[in-house]
Q: What sequence folds into this?
């Protein structure tokens, strides 16, 4: 007797934003549908009619519930609270009806608004949650703006969240480091993000060029990287730095000038759709983030055979880099140490080649076929 294909539903706000979560979900959904033959449906709340940021397989079904939480972004606090509660009730009603119609084997929440009620929907599916940032920075992306009220709210909110996570059949995080942070839970599993490239070209590691990729935002620490580069540019006069990312570059351009950094050797670029070409035109990748989930761009760089110099920030770098073997780990936030160890690596072509070869070898564990197998084992165990 032929078995029915596993039916899996993902719940996420939208697919029109070009973010890491959208990219990883699209990659996994495409692979599960096309390679494993799973029946995959993605249920969205926002972005009806907007083009998807990443190509989605025709075999993946999409249902948009038309809740439009993104309408709340520009509302006053009082209006936002009222509309949110109203939209949340609508979302619960519509998602419940959709899951009862679809009757999936597994429902996977990307830990957005449905996590508050997903486990109570009586559709018969096993419930999974997956988190794409670390615990201490979840729902706190711009951690430079804090006060006692926000801290109190965050503590109460986290207590409520832990209660909801406890009800899940499995809770998937990206790193071993983050798994240890969820000490109250017994249902935590680690599965890394996959590299998004279908085929990977290796850098020849001959260009005297350092690359960084990340949004121009507090989290990514581009300001810390520029402080370190001010020292590196003097010690390594024939090297240049290239940064690629979304967001407002203006304050960072101003910082370049204020620090007296040579603009001909330090360039801040917008995002590019040909990022793999930029990795292969570079010889070292640098991560200056204050915190991460598991950096997609770091995995991409490693797969192209670039050694990585990174702050040992929470979470991710420690899961990817073995210090001195395939990259360099620097004390989190220590700008002087970042400058020293980056300079030392740039002045040692032999270390760049040795670490780059080890990085490329390690990158096999981040390929989609390897990680999809881990997901398959998890799904089938449930």
A:
């Amino acid at each position: 007797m032929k078995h029915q294909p596993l039916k899996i539903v993902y719940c996420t706000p939208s697919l029109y934003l070009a973010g890491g979560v959208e990219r990883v979900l699209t990659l996994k959904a495409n692979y599960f549908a096309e390679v494993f033959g799973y029946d995959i449906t993605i249920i969205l709340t926002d972005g009806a009619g907007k083009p998807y940021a990443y190509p989605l397989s025709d075999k993946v079904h999409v249902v948009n519930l038309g809740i439009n939480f993104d309408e709340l972004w520009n509302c006053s606090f009082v209006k936002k609270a009222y509309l949110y509660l109203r939209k949340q009730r609508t979302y619960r009603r519509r998602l419940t009806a959709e899951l009862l119609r679809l009757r999936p084997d597994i429902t996977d929440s990307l830990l957005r608004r449905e996590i508050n009620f997903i486990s109570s929907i009586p559709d018969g599916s096993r419930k999974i949650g997956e988190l794409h940032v670390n615990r201490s920075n979840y729902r706190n992306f711009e951690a430079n703006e804090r006060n006692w009220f926000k801290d109190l709210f965050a503590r109460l909110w986290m207590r409520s969240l832990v209660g909801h996570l406890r009800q899940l059949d499995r809770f998937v995080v990206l790193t071993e480091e983050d798994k240890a942070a969820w000490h109250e839970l017994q249902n935590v599993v680690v599965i890394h993000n996959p590299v998004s490239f279908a085929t990977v070209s290796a850098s020849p590691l001959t260009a005297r060029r350092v690359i960084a990729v990340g949004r121009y935002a507090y989290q990514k620490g581009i300001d810390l990287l520029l402080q370190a580069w001010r020292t590196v540019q003097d010690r390594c006069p024939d090297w240049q730095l290239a940064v690629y990312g979304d967001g407002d570059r203006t304050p960072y351009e101003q910082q370049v000038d204020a620090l007296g950094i040579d603009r001909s050797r330090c360039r801040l670029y917008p995002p590019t759709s040909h990022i793999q070409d930029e990795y292969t035109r570079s010889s070292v990748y640098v991560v200056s983030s204050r915190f991460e989930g598991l950096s997609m761009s770091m995995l991409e760089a490693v797969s192209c055979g670039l050694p990585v110099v990174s702050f040992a920030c929470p979470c991710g770098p420690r899961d990817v880099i073995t210090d001195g073997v395939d990259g360099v780990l620097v004390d989190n936030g220590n700008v002087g140490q970042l400058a020293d160890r980056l300079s030392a690596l740039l002045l040692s072509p032999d270390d760049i080649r040795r670490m780059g070869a080890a990085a490329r070898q390690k990158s096999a564990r981040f390929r989609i076929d390897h990680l999809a197998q881990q997901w398959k084992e998890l799904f089938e165990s449930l």
Summary: The domain at 7-194+367-381 is CATH 3.40.50.2000 (Rossmann fold). The CA atoms of residues 312 and 318 lie 6 Å apart.
